[in-house]
Amino acid sequence: MSVVTCKVMGEPEPAACEGENVTATTSAPAALRPHAEDAFAEELKALEAVDDRPRPERWRLSPWAVATYLLGGTLPDGTVVSPKYVGPRRIVEVAVTTLATDRALLLLGVPGTAKTWVSEHLAAAVSGDSTLLVQGTAGTAEEAVRYGWNYAQLLAKGPSREALVPSPVMRAMADGMIARVEELTRIPADVQDTLITILSEKTLPIPELGEEVQAVRGFNLIATANDRDKGVNELSSALRRRFNTVVLPLPETPEAEVDIVARRVEQIGRSLDLPAVPDGIDEIRRVVTVFRELRDGVTTDGRTKLKSPSGTLSTAEAISVVTGGLALAAHFGDGVLRASDVAAGILGAVVRDPAADRVIWQEYLEAVVREREGWKDFYRACREVSA
Questions:
Q1: Alpha-carbon gap, residue 207 to 173, rounded angstroms
Q2: Does pTM top 0.90 for this prediction?
Q3: Which residue of 14, 18, 242, 280 is most buried, as measured by CB atoms within 10 A?
Q4: Residues 14 and 124 in one domain
């Protein structure tokens, strides 16, 4: 009789299959959003193969290769590395250089300027692991930054290494890797300041055990923050001094922003089996134009001043609007992105304050969109959802 092999979730289960000459394999379900080191594993592997430049200790790639991974380019063997960040090269070079020193990196900018995206890809390229993450919220406790306890072990054996639960920061210190702290200014000030000793002394004391964890070479920390959202907790001057701050700007030109939105929507859409971006590039350009004009308070030609709504109308929000529109076109339309597919998303992004923002939006529609050549379909679609 032939051997029968059945694998479920990667584990052999001979008893689950019956019959002869049968091999059944059930793979793990695909991740909705793979980590950067998984999604771009081939690019990282190709860079690692051709990278012959000096690498800081425990870095997967050299600083030059990390910058190439983020900014994109063509390698000597012909491999094309896709750009992860579209912006000034010097910003990326300063960020990478900071991580190669003993200074932590603070990525600062208004919401939607790709701070989280850049920090994830930096960690993936430097350490090969972007998952050592502390997500900052108003409820983030000190244990999330330092360490916690397994209370069953604590009650059974008292304070011990076995009972200690290391935070992502502690693990990064011990293994010489990059830790990430997202939305640092959302974290309460007293919890923020637990980072001061870590960043200045490169140690994390454990008073309960009379021990400390010393950071090994390769350790560093990337934090992201913005000062536009409500509920922001200002960084103390003592903590801010421990960081090199790199400000990520909004895209300088409409063309650059359209390119960013198109690239990200294509990546997201591919994972969701949505239509290709080129089918809707005209609508992407219109969404970006609307967002930029309302954000800047003036039309593209500079002739008409506008009131700006309360929202940030960032590039990230434009990506969300277009992705939602593509989903509408795919599931309830003919697969082609049209004005009617993005109108509701734009309204939701612009009108955050139902009273003041709605007036601003109506004025923009009547004074600008209605009179703009080639935008009649867009005007009708926006009027329909705004009524």
A1: 17
A2: no
A3: 280
A4: no
